[in-house]
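Board notes, transcribed. Complex of a protein with zinc ion.
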Amino acid sequence: MTTGALTDEALLALPKAELHLHIEGTLEPELAFELAARNGVDMPYATVEELSAQYDFDDLQSFLDLYYATMAVLLTRGDFAELTRRYLRRAHAQGVRHVELFFDPQAHTARGVAFDDVVDGIGDALDEAERDFGMSGALILCFLRDQPVASADEALTAGLARMDRIIGVGLDSAEVGYPPSLFESVYARARAAGLHSVAHAGEEGPPAYVWEALDLLHVERIDHGIRSIEDAELVARLAEERIPLTVCPLSNVRLQATPDLRDHPLLRLDAAGVAVTVNSDDPAYFGGYAGQNFTAVRDALGLTEEQARRLARTSIEGSFASPERKRALLAELEGWRP
Ligand code: HPA
Ligand code: ZN
């Protein structure tokens, strides 16, 4: 047992799984400009500084506008590999041992990028990271909830041909006005094919969307889910059924869901027995990778060794890794000495 605050080094070394990470949201301004030059894509901003100055968001939509505009520089299998390679290096340096990363295929196929180039580029980098530093990872295909259901259906059909890489489906993009119920049939088809399922709910949307994700989409985890705190019956259910919430503290601050991190419900949900985890969402845009989300939580809310260990343990147990992989990761966590 240590006394006093957990150090940055201890929290970065804490072995953890990252369960809420949009690979397109790891596109740092420097790489965006490199790829724009290589691919002959016009950037709406002239310099890295000018682009970075736009990272001051009012809400989810203001972020999404920039997120979709900037990803236009990603065109080839090599681009997706380079993007993922850079993320995996940073994540590994912050204790991430296993990652289930989201990708948004509709945002790429709509621009003429081949579905398989996206999957294969990300997959190339995952293979390298496994070989070079023993990280494990897999892909979760996210449907854009503000696009037609027929488009999600097409993305799923493409995804079903790539179950060598894709382990599950998710739901992201603009939440309010696009309830999970719209995607009931798509999720039924994904689950019938043996895919795992998760969904963003309760980030900006109401607790009712979390109920729908559970009851209609039958998801295994909820992404964000922070507004569940407004509904005591929902909190009790999440705790009872041990449904993991993949919480992203710095994202919630930057998108003004919880403007002051000191008000964040993470540890209140933890105290209520909910299986919360800490993740980075879109780290290039929100000011920090996985380890930095832990240090920010420590600074704003305080974090005991026991809480940090529980957050990491929940991330491993709540992952879709194999039982053997989970055992190995849990053993590594046992050896963590802050
Ligand atoms: N919420 C919803 N959609 C997203 C996000 C997010 O935080 N990041 C990328 N797509
Ligand atoms: Zn997200």
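The domain at 2-334 is CATH 3.20.20.140 (TIM Barrel). The mean pLDDT is 98.
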